[in-house]
Amino acid sequence: MPIVKIPVVQKFGILSTKYHQELQKILLERNKESHGEKFSSHRSPLEVTEEFIKQFNAAEELEVQEHMLDSARKILHRCKRRSGINCKGSKYVNLHLAWEELVLMAQCKGKIQEEALDILILSMDQADLNQDHIPLLFFIAESVLYRICCDSVQKPHLYSSEIKLSKLGLLSFLRLYTFHLLGKLQHFEEQKDRLYIYLKALPACEASYESYPNILLSVHIMLKVGEAICDLEIDLETNHLLKKQPVSIDQSSMHPREAEISPFLWHCLLIWQHIENNSTHLHDIIQHLFRLKGHLHRENWLDSLLALFILGEAAKKEIFCLQALMDLGGDVLSHVPQIEVQSSSHGWHWEVICVYTMVLAGVCLHGSTSDIQKYAFIGFKSKDPLTMSNKEASLNSLLLCTTPDLSDANHLWMISYCAVYNLVKICHELKWDTNRDGLRIAIWNALYKHKSMENDTRVFDAEKIAEAEVNGPANPFINTSAKTPSAPDSLSFFQYVGCRLARALSQQFLPTVVHSVPTPRKASWSHVTKKGSHIKEYSMQKKASRPSLRQELMFDKPSPPSPLYFITRTSMDLQKVMKDQWEKELKITMDKEEEETKQEQLEQKKREEERFKEIMKKREEKLKKTSKPYELP
Fold it and tell me: Is pTM beyond 0.70 here?
């Protein structure tokens, strides 16, 4: 479903098609060498070569097209197996070879191009960060920039392949920036110079995507990462990227570069680590995080994006983290007028707001519990008058974030755009999940209500673009089941990127985790089964008395105490149980030591009595008397 796009005249003149073909030829030769010399004389019919791509794109006869299409599908099946999608990229994989072939297969026309991009995006989302992938990540980044600057931007319409290219660029550049923070890109100066050539053309593409924040976000992230890893700066007069002045040898030796991350990102990593290790000090760390929220307003917002991805991953598992994430997002609604001022110390950059909406939508879709999914959409809605001044940045509140005068906030419409765009995709993901029909219906009702109040035509395009993205041609290589096509292998949201980034960064920037003493064992199975009927009756009563999500949205009634109150109470009860258990163990140890002391005293007393008896016995033998020493004769 094409979307009309503003045409932009090509004014680059700095990208060389011949240079890109030479890079492609080098990669093809490396791919050929990796297969060994046995394929030199007998070439495999399923080998990805430049000739195969040319024959596929030039095929005109029906028989030739069917033959080439069948071969291409077999290659993609092999790439899917090598990329380890079914096992989440954990074993039996050859990611380097699979990614090389997928990048080349993405040059084919039609559905094969879309399916190759789908597999590559999903595999890159799942795979762990490996230092051996850095050269290939540079080539993927160059290929994405080449396709966007020289091919996609020249088309009069917006196609789904451009959206997928932007997603692929976002993932590859985020991985490169993570390796930059880890200090792993110091020996790739040649790749950085090549990437700089393509980055110089990217600022001219921004005008083509001004009406599509989801794609413009990826463009800005690629530019920002390029500035960081290639030592670039933007000339404000010409809006061009320029190389910074190199540091002299004496200065570089005196001040060596060290990888650094912001304190806010470091605390988000610490929160994720405590979630992974079931720590009991999570509440104190979250409270300290709010003191560092000013880092979300700074000019260098790349660390803020990584922090939101990691904090969103923690929010999927712990409702405390979701509450913290939404409290941080409350600054979006509290400082709406400052959003357009990029240098303001109070407002967020619109790129951070877009990523926040994306992360919150991922929590709503992939949260570990139904409560986490629900509260990510509607918010906690605390009735405490002390907290009513703090606005909650839930998906529903971001959807209704409007202003009467749009000229006063140039980027305000992007908030509603991102909310509509992500909520439409969530509804598509929940289409076949009957267990979450209530959440899907509530989201559709909120979208319908917002549509009747929205006046900005740019926000209406968000629904069209989301529907064109999720309702595209069916992908037989990703969806393993026709009944549940979106459950484990969804392309609508990045499901694992936050966990993968957190795992790589925590290994270098966080101390080694010391595992705590295991808690006491639970009650025996026989004891639990005796109370099974009571637990079932209680759960049925709780389910019957609990209002539905739709009722909570339609009626404005005084709600019961905040869920955070019950969570805090439960956490305090758990800490009390653990404290009582430790006190019991300490009491047992002290009683044992006291018993041993008493036993030693008894033995000592017994030895003294025996010694006294021996003395008395000798006295009787010597004096031939049986009276005691202190008795009178």
Answer: yes
